[in-house]
Write a structure and sequence with these properties.
By secondary structure, the chain is of the alpha/beta class. It is built from twelve helices and twelve strands. It has two domains: 182 residues, Zn peptidases (Aminopeptidase, 3-Layer(aba) Sandwich), CATH 3.40.630.10; 160 residues, Alpha-Beta Plaits, CATH 3.30.70. It has a five-stranded mixed beta sheet, covered by helices on one side. About 14% of the residues have low confidence.
């Protein structure tokens, strides 16, 4: 067995021997309901992440932003060899809202092990990754006596709401964040027994669209069929965004998009994937979208979130960050024209006609 193999075997043993400690850390972090869209318990979560990093030998700072703080950790350097290479690890400590509560089989902020899996809000995105990464750092430090390179951490608290203040933080702290390589563990694994490495990600832009119809609430029995319903108008708009085959029907949406080369497609097609199994896992009878292998490569997509209209006794807050990368708000839709455009530089914008038609008015707001 080579020296590297001996080190890897020792790391595996250390991680196995300290698994209960890591699970306890995950349970405690999961118990902190750091839902960024609600803005509660964010400082508590940041402090605990800093505490965990300090236990792995990092010097930490909790740095303010215009929103929620970023936890910064730095292993420092003990040798010239360490100083030659710097790795920056990105993670986030915020999570999605826990609602609807009636769909949970266990309390959302209490990590519970069932059938070999751990259930709890944020465990797979991204608190489990935070803990596993710090556990790996502790193992490396214990087995080898230190780190082979300088290691830094940046753990933010606004990823689930689009990281609105992260660019400003990066700009102000560019010197501290300087590195040779950034690794983000906030991503998917191809399957439980097959890790994956993502080398690029698509961008994201979101708009909230609202329709203003009648001045006041109207009774459907008296006014239905004579006054345009904003929800019906929205349905017409959403239906017009895609062709029957799933491709995007919006004018200029694909401008500037370079398709993968034949060689790249061949490499991606070699990755095992079963559309029928994927459909079964998601609870649908078949997949939908443009022709070609699902998830083998990431197409430019126009995805729709939820919309809601009317009030039946239970108020619901719209959360455009929770569902996908397009969202509409309460009483939404319009008979106006909508078109996304992508110029050759990759900038994304939106055209919209805001003139009233059939008595409804389109109002849109860019979220990010």
């Amino acid at each position: 067995m080579s020296e590297d193999e001996q080190i890897l075997a020792a790391l595996d043993r250390y991680i196995d021997d300290h698994l209960d400690e890591s699970l306890a850390d995950l349970t405690r972090l999961t118990a902190i309901p750091s839902v960024s869209s609600k803005g509660e318990h964010m400082d508590e979560a940041a402090r605990y992440v800093a505490e965990l990093l300090e236990g792995a030998g990092f010097t930490t700072q909790i740095l303010p932003t215009e929103g929620f703080p970023v936890v910064y950790g730095d292993s420092g350097t003990d040798s010239d060899e360490q100083a030659r290479r710097t790795l920056l690890c990105y993670n986030h400590y915020d999570v999605q809202p826990e609602e609807p509560l009636d769909l949970w089989e266990s309390p959302p902020f209490a990590a519970e092990v069932r059938d070999g899996r751990i259930y709890g809000r944020g465990i797979s995105d991204d608190k489990g990754q935070v803990i596993s990464r710090i556990a790996a750092m502790r193992a490396v430090r214990a087995v080898t006596g230190g780190y082979p390179a300088r290691v830094k951490f940046a753990v933010e608290g606004e990823e689930e709401i689009g990281s609105p203040h992260l660019p400003g933080y990066v700009g102000r702290h560019a010197r501290e964040l300087a590195c040779d390589l950034v690794i983000s563990a906030d991503g998917a694994q191809w399957r439980p027994d097959e890790p994956s490495l993502s080398v690029a990600s698509k961008g994201l832009v979101a708009f909230t669209i609202t329709v203003e119809g009648a001045r006041d609430d109207l009774h459907s029995g008296r006014y239905g069929g004579t006054v345009a319903n904003p929800a019906q108008a929205l349905a017409a708009i959403l239906a017009s965004l895609h062709h029957p085959d799933g491709s995007v029907a919006v004018d200029r949406f694909y401008d500037g998009v370079t398709p993968p080369s034949p060689r790249r497609l061949a490499e991606l097609d070699a990755v095992p994937f079963d559309d029928e199994v994927f459909a079964a896992q998601t609870g649908v009878s078949e997949t939908w979208g443009e022709a070609g292998p699902v998830f083998r490569y990431d197409r430019w997509r126009l995805s729709l979130g939820a919309y809601y209209q009317g009030f039946s006794g239970t108020e619901t807050d719209a959360n455009p960050y929770r569902l996908l990368d397009f969202s509409a708000a309460r009483s939404v839709g319009a008979y106006g024209g909508i078109a996304f455009y992508i110029d050759p530089t990759g900038s994304i914008g939106l055209y919209a006609t805001t003139g009233a038609r059939h008595g409804v008015q389109l109002v849109f707001r860019r979220e990010f």
